Amino acid sequence: MKQLKNKRLSPAKEMAFIAVQTALLIGGQLALYPVAGVEVVTVLLLCFSWVMGPRAGALSAVCFSLLRCALWGFYPSAVVLYLLYYPLFALLFGALGRVSDDVYAHFPVWAAAAVNAVLLAVCALCIWCVVGDVLKISRLAVVLIKSLLGVIAALSAALAVALDVAVALSRRQGKKANTGGDMAQLSAQNAANSAAKAGNGRLSGGSVVKVIIAASLAAVCTIFFTLLDDFISPAFLGYPLFSESWAVYFYGSFLALAPQTVCAIVTVSTLFLPLTAVFRRAAKI
Amino acid sequence: MCRGCCTYTAGFGIYKVIFAKICVFLPNLYIYICIKFAPYNDTELNFIKEKFIVKRLIFAACAAVLAAAVPLAACNSGEASLYKAEVSDGELVVFVAPEVSGDMSVKDYFDGLVEEGVLTYTIADGMVTSINGVQNPADYSYCWMFYSDLIELDGVIYSNAEWGTYDHEGKTLASCAYGVEEMPVVEGYTYAAVYQSLSY
Fold first, then answer.
1. pTM, whole model, 2 decimals?
2. Pairwise CB contact (< 8 Å): A166 & B62
3. What ipTM was predicted for this assembly?
4. Measured between CA atoms, how close is B54 to chain A, in angstroms?
5. What percent of chain B is helix, strand and coil (3-state, nearest 5)?
6. A140–B72: do the CB atoms touch at under 8 Å?
7. Do A154 and B55 touch (CB under 8 A)?
8. Is 70 exceeded by the pLDDT of residue A175?
9. Are the C-beta atoms of A153 and A196 separated by less than 8 Å?
């Protein structure tokens, strides 16, 4: 998959893309806000930032945040939360999109180990919440939330396994290309050349790794968003940290955290490759 | 009220089959879309199919987990012995929870009161928007707020006096920490919906 790192869009084109992306984000949020826990802002902003870069992503995140507040009200906690979180999110995935394809195709072992550690930590945390008596939330919601946390644990474990398999397959492909005979080398070269020529949306050894990295980090960022809100909103409401009021707010946030995290993992896993291909084709690079 | 819980549980096998079919169908649909919009030669097709083993593993894992997890989330609403409100008008609704079998939410009890003709209400996105014809205004200068003397049960806080209180016939009710769909109705506790101005 090509990157835009050495090719800058013209300022007018960049502004147009940012405007359209902002409209997409607002439209997606408006369309899906009645459905609790389901949102497309994460996957859309992620893919846009990945392709267009951190600057365009961050600018569209700021525009989206301000427009969202204009529509739903300028509540101080919401303004701070959205203007803090979404630009950082866009910068993170914009930076990841700037990393060379070779790195994803030959993913370093230490990086794979780090991602595995994060995924297994999320898995372990969810399992702890499910089996332990740590969730002090309404008994009418606790079963559903524990089910969703179980799903997150399973998805995290599946992503870790998939990452290890994908990295191993990519490395095996690379070794075959390096150590094989003329025919193996030629076929591997042909496959690589065809993939390079085809350009957008083509699957390569590193594509699966990218999907898993994106989905994993999207899940972690979604969890971070809710935890950030658990500190910002109570602070604006005047609740002392770790007080009873704060605890009520914190446990209540699980009603949003669990479905949003599942949604982030599923949408990014399934839509990352097609959406990045669409954005790249739209940029006509 | 959640009617048909028994039929839901009994018919769950059909939903499992449908869900499993969807989870098998989705990866194939995904492959079809990729192939349709970006034609590949045979070498690349084999490469793609090999790589999709990983995606299918993930989908299969998701299907298994979700199919196992959904029964846990099956509806298990309770029934009340009677549906009665002490007060029901355009500014105040108060009821004391009677004997309840199973888990019942305030919304379920309100549905029972509606069936008894005691009140009418509308709900949107989990928030009560009107009771007995009195609606929340668009600017939310006034709002239907819920209070209860169910403060804590089994280590879970259900109401918080720091968020607001309402006095009714010598009882001090605290502001509910959950919406009407997550606030449980527990026998002997008092619940009140009050139409009042919001002050920040």
1. 0.74
2. no
3. 0.70
4. 6
5. 35, 30, 30
6. no
7. no
8. no
9. no
Secondary structure class of A49 (helix, strand, coil) = helix
How distant is the Cα of B86 from the closest Cα of chain A, in angstroms? 25
Contacting residues of A for B125, CB less than 8 Å apart: 33-34, 36
Residue A8 has pLDDT above 70, yes or no: no
Instruction: For residue B93, give both structure tokens.
Output: 């609704």
Q: Tell me if residue B165 falls in helix, strand or coil.
A: strand
Strands B190-197 and B92-96: antiparallel
CB contacts of A206 in chain B (<8 Å) are none
C-alpha torsion B110→B111→B117→B120, nearest 10: 70
**Does B33 sit within 8 Å of A274, measured CB to CB?**
yes
| Phi, psi for residue B192 in degrees, rounded to 5 | -135, 140
**Dist. CA B26–CA B16, nearest whole Å:** 15
Helix axis angle for A142-179 and A182-198, nearest 10°, is: 130
CA atoms within 13 A on the CB side of B16: 14
Token pair for residue A100? 């060379």
B59-65 contacts: CB < 8 A, separation 24 or more?
B59/B23, B59/B24, B59/B26, B59/B27, B60/B23, B61/A154, B61/A155, B61/A157, B61/A158, B62/A151, B62/A154, B62/A155, B62/A158, B62/A266, B62/B23, B63/B19, B63/B20, B63/B23, B63/B24, B64/A154, B65/A150, B65/A151, B65/A154, B65/A155
